[in-house]
Amino acid sequence: MVAEEGTELLPKLGVGIGWRSEIDLTVERLPGVDFVEVVAENIHIGHLPESVALLRERGVPILPHAVSLSLGGAEEVDAQRVRHLAEVAEALDAPLVSDHVCFVRAGGLDSGHLMPVPRTRDALAVLVANVKAAQQDLPVPLALENVAALLEWPDGELTEGQFLAELVSQTDCYLLVDVANLYANARNLGTDPDRFLDEIPLERLAYVHVAGGVEHGELYHDTHAHAVRQEVLDLLDELCSRVAPPGVLLERDDNYPSDTEIATELAAIRAVVEKHQ
Amino acid sequence: MQRPWGLSGPEFLQYYWIALAVCVVIAIIVRVRVKAGNDQPVRTLDLDELAYLAGGPRRVVEASIARLLTAEALRTSRRGAVQSTGSVHVVNPIDLAVIADAERYTNRTISLLVPNVAKDYAVTTIGTRLHQAGLILDRDEVKSRLRKGAIPLWLLLVVGIVRWVNGIGIGAPVGWLTLQLVITGLLIFIVTRRGRLMRTSKGDRVLSQARSGGATGGATGPASLEYAGAAGLVALGGLLAYPDLTVRSALMAAPYNSGSGYVSSGSSCSTASSCSSGSSCSSGSSCGGGGGCGGGCGGGS
After folding, report:
1. How far, in whole angstroms, is CA A20 from its chain's centroid?
2. If we measure between CA atoms, which residue out of A178, A179, A265, A184 comes closest to residue A222?
């Protein structure tokens, strides 16, 4: 267990992979999977997938990762979605849960995407209120993840790092840093990853996401369906040079390659992490 | 006592029994000759041909699935849905057909994939080759020859029916004749049944040798090496013989009837997913994309 002064204990997670039903057997059998993450909305309480139940029996930490709380939205957080996330956390005996710094619906419409939040103090206040409301109903700590965006809202008052630092300061949440999203924002929006890492409170880092993507024209798309690029691993390396992350997780959501290729990606991630230990 | 056709009732019954025995012998001879196959020398079979010989077109697809799983060109989930990994270059035409089918559909279960690929030309052409080699029987040809072999029985039946009608007409007892007609009908049904008549005797011999560890035609050779491994086991024993118990259980998880393998039933089972998430993310995953990645996935988790 790792702990910072004045914070809750978070487990040392190691290197993990996102559990998906398409690769359930692969995840179960891959060597060196210390923890997994499940998409909370895909888990039905009382009907845990056999593979997830098996991993739980083995004592592998399973972290619910939500995609639908829409904490950055102007509307109040949907209590039912928070309750479901809480139930999943309890069913999986999860040490923490996570979602994104984004909104996914407004005016009754679902975007189908994780939309970035305007980095204004007003938007931060809304986000903070929603996060606090969600935290009240969650049995475990909440970690929030930086998203990849193709646009920035105008009139931003804070950098992304400052925005997240303020969010942590005001809600006591943890951070889930996605270095692939960081890379995507650097490529597409010109965000400075070093400044981002300088500005966020790394002591509140819960774990890290790593994923692959692909270039289309001048844009980089964080597809989670392609191989992890060396540049993303370099960003992980930079992060690990500043702090030992409790966990690093490979996300893959489509075009699943062979077990050997997935194992190779996990090994590459582990090599970066262990380089700094 | 009346003697229609110059024969008393008991005499007719006696001749009928004799004729019936002769007709059955003729039908049996035809059946044995159908089963015999041709006299071509047996050549070495590749794994796909051996699979076809052992279990028909479905077995060929099953062996291909085993080969692709072992090579990590294909993976299965616990619910028996197979996916192409895109990681391995395959050249075998059956493997290509399996990969193409797996890539054409999402959550493709083997219960749907196997019967579909079994109809592919790459598979059916193996059947043609084995038939030409005198190892398996052509379904239509077998049916036709068995029917021809039963012609004497049909003729005998017609004679018996005429005698039976005449007997009724003159008030003669027809109990025994009725029994003979029923027996004749049953025998016609039996001798024209194709049943499990799939391989020729030569095909049976080749398969038996392969099962006992040899190659084919009594000669050992490189083929015996090819029959090793998961694909070899599945070729001879079906998916139930896949050596990895967990993968085998996954493959058998979806409703699947391996059947005799030689007859494509054309049936298919629906294996609808129940993966409703109520999520705002249409894919149900946390996948990224940052927009524009297609597939309805979310935006940069």
Report:
1. 15
2. A184
Per-residue model confidence as pLDDT tens digits over A230-276: 999 999 999 999 999 999 999 999 999 999 999 999 999 999 999 99
Write out pLDDT tens, residues A32-78. 899 999 999 999 998 999 999 999 999 999 999 999 999 999 999 99
Q: Which two tokens stand for residue B8?
A: 């008393």
The bridge status of strand A205-211 relative to strand A247-251 is parallel
Cβ A29 vs Cβ B76: under 8 Å? no
Residue B4 DSSP symbol:
G
Give me the residue from B85, B250, B300 closest to A148, CB to CB. B300
| B282, pLDDT greater than 60 | no
The secondary structure of residue A116, as a DSSP letter, is: P
3-state secondary structure of A144: strand
The B-side interface with A (CB below 8 A) comprises 72-73, 75-79, 81, 83, 85-88, 246-247, 250, 275, 277-293, 295-301
In contact, A149 and A185? CB cutoff 8 Å: yes
Angstrom distance (rounded) from CA A177 to CA A222: 14
What end-to-end distance do the CA atoms of chain A give, in Å?
16
Structure tokens at B77: 């989930």
CA-nearest of A235, A265, A231, A225 to A249 is A265
Round to whole Å and give the CA distance between A229 and A214.
9
CA distances from A47 to A32, A52, A58, A88, B153 (A): 27, 10, 18, 11, 62
| pLDDT tens digit sequence for B225-239 | 556 789 999 999 999
Predicted TM-score (pTM) of the model is: 0.79
